[in-house]
Amino acid sequence: MGTWEGGCHCGNVRFRVSGDLAHVIECNCSICTKKGFLHLIVPPEQFTLLCGEEALSTYQFNTGTAKHIFCRHCGIHPFYIPRSDPDKIDINVRCLAGVDLAGVTTTAFDGRNWDDAILTANPRSA
Ligand SMILES: [Zn+2]
C-alpha cells in the first residue's frame, strides 16, 4: 500500500489516493486503449478530491454505467467510475506523481470481450 497525489495535465484537478500498485490493470477495450488508461481500483474512502470538482466533465456511452470523468480544460482522464465496480473509483496510474511506470506490473483485462472478461476476473459477480 502507498499514498500518492495525482491530477490532470493543466493542474485544475488534484487528488490523493491510497492503494496497492501490485494490482494495476491494463484493459484492451476501445476507450482504455485510446486513453492509455492504467487502472487502480480503490474504494471511495481511499480517494480524496483535493480540488477541481468544477473542472470535471463526464463522458458516457454503451451501458452508461461507467462515468468517464475528465478535466474539461486539458481533456485528461485522471480517474473515473468503472463499469466493473460502479461503487469504486478507478485511478489512472499514469496521472500519479512519483510512480515509476517501469516498475509497475500490470494484469491484462479483456475489456473488448467485457461480458466474458468480467466473469473471469470476478466470478462472484456472475
Ligand atoms: Zn486539466
Molecular structure report:
The protein is mainly beta and 126 residues long. It has one domain (2-111): Metal Binding Protein, Guanine Nucleotide Exchange Factor, Chain A (Beta Complex), CATH 2.170.150. It is built from two helices and ten strands. The chain has helices at 30-35, 114-121, and strands at residues 2-7, 14-19, 24-27, 38-42, 47-51, 56-59, 68-71, 79-80, 89-92, 106-109. The strands form three sheets. The protein has a five-stranded mixed β-sheet. The protein has a three-stranded antiparallel β-sheet with strand order 1-2-5, with no helix packed on it. Strand 6 (56-59) and strand 7 form a beta hairpin. The protein is globular. The N and C termini lie far apart (29 Å). The model has no long low-confidence stretch (mean pLDDT 92). The protein binds zinc ion (ZN). Zinc ion binds at residues 8-10, 12-13, 71, 73-74, 76.
How would you sum up this structure in a few lines?
With 126 residues, this protein is mainly β.
Which characteristics define this entry?
five-stranded mixed beta sheet; globular; three-stranded antiparallel beta sheet; mainly beta; single chain; Metal Binding Protein, Guanine Nucleotide Exchange Factor, Chain A; 126 residues; 2 helices; 35% strand; binds zinc ion
Order of helices and strands: EEEHEEEEEEEH
- Stretches where pLDDT is under 50 for at least 5 consecutive residues are none
Give the % helix.
10-25%
**Strand order within the widest sheet?**
8-9-4-3-10
Number of helices: 2
Structural class: mainly beta
CATH architecture: Beta Complex
- The span between the termini is 29 Å
What is the CA-atom radius of gyration, in angstroms?
A: 14 Å
The profile of the biggest β sheet is: 5 strands, mixed
CATH level-3 fold name:
Metal Binding Protein, Guanine Nucleotide Exchange Factor, Chain A
Distinct ligands = zinc ion
CATH class: Mainly Beta
The percent range for strand residues is: 25-35%
Averaged pLDDT: 92
Shape: globular
Q: Number of domains in the coordinates? A: 1
Number of strands: 10
